[in-house]
Amino acid sequence: MRRLDVGPGARLVVATHNPGKLVEIGALLKPFGMDAVSAGELDIPEPEETGSTFVENAVIKALASAVASGLPALADDSGLAVEALGGDPGIYSARWAGPDKDFDMAMETVNRLLGDNPDRRAAFVCALAVAWPDGHVETFEGTVDGTVCWPPRGGNGFGYDPFFVPEGFDETFGEMEPARKHEMSHRARAFALFVEACLKGA
Ligand code: IMP
């Protein structure tokens, strides 16, 4: 497992054009004295996500930014995988909401495809990839198992949150206190693995 250089002056490119993600990841890196800079700020174009898994897409994004910037780069890819739909919408979770990012429609589509199938199992998945300019890559994956419910419940969070009840809870992610979701989310789990492997003790 390769570690990242940390401390004053250390920089990590976050392979995203989403300012929200940069803020979230920047806060995580700060205690290690690292600065997060986004691919957007460096004018690095977003590569086409041609992978067939979350990990493959995260690797494509991290490598594109690392090679273009000459700095290590971190990328994530995430989504909702529904068991009875063979893992759909999966890597296409954002696309199922269409150009208007209509997640009510995306949840309705998933529910319609499930029909009266009693198997409502689903998982949120987050893959993280760290790539170095020499092409070395490390990957991490965090998941939260649960079920999808109908109708969706709760106004917190984003995307498919109101549709997903994590295992061991009665509330959906959309009903849950945001802090509680963030503690146990697929993203938190993937980040914890990344921090442990690449940053801690460095
Ligand atoms: P990404 O930004 O390309 O990884 O897209 C991830 C998509 O998956 C988002 O647009 C959401 O639709 C969905 N997604 C990922 N994580 C979550 C979550 O924590 N809650 C709800 N939806 C999520």
UniProtKB/TrEMBL annotation:
**Binding positions for substrate?**
16-21, 78, 158-161, 181, 186-187
The protein's superkingdom reads Bacteria
Name any cofactors this protein relies on: Mg(2+)
InterPro entries tied to this protein: dITP/XTP_pyrophosphatase, ITPase-like_fam, RdgB/HAM1
Q: What class of enzyme is it?
A: hydrolase
User: What are the positions of the active site?
Assistant: 77
Protein's job: Pyrophosphatase that catalyzes the hydrolysis of nucleoside triphosphates to their monophosphate derivatives, with a high preference for the non-canonical purine nucleotides XTP (xanthosine triphosphate), dITP (deoxyinosine triphosphate) and ITP. Seems to function as a house-cleaning enzyme that removes non-canonical purine nucleotides from the nucleotide pool, thus preventing their incorporation into DNA/RNA and avoiding chromosomal lesions.
- HAMAP family to which the protein is assigned, alphabetical: Non_canon_purine_NTPase (MF_01405)
Protein's name according to its UniProt entry? dITP/XTP pyrophosphatase
Q: From the UniProt record, report the name of the gene that encodes this protein.
A: rdgB
